[in-house]
Amino acid sequence: MASLRDYFSLDIGIDLGTANTLVYVRGRGIVINESSVVAIDNRTKAILAIGDEAKKMVGKTPAHITAIRPLRDGVVSHFEVTEEMLRYFIEKASTSRLRKLLRPRVIVGIPYGVTEVERRAAEEAALAAGAGQVYLIEEPIAAAIGANLPIQEATGSMIVDIGGGTTEVAVISLGGVVASRSLRIAGDEMNEDIINFARDHFNILLGERTAEEIKIKIGSAFPLSSPLRTIMRGRDLLTGLPKEIEITDEAIREALEKSVSVIVETIKATVEEAPAELVADIMEQGIVLTGGGSLLRGLDKRIAEATNIKVYVSKEPLTAVVRGTGLVLEDLNNLKDVLLPSTLESSYK
Question: Which is more confidently placed, 204 or 133?
Answer without folding.
Answer: 204
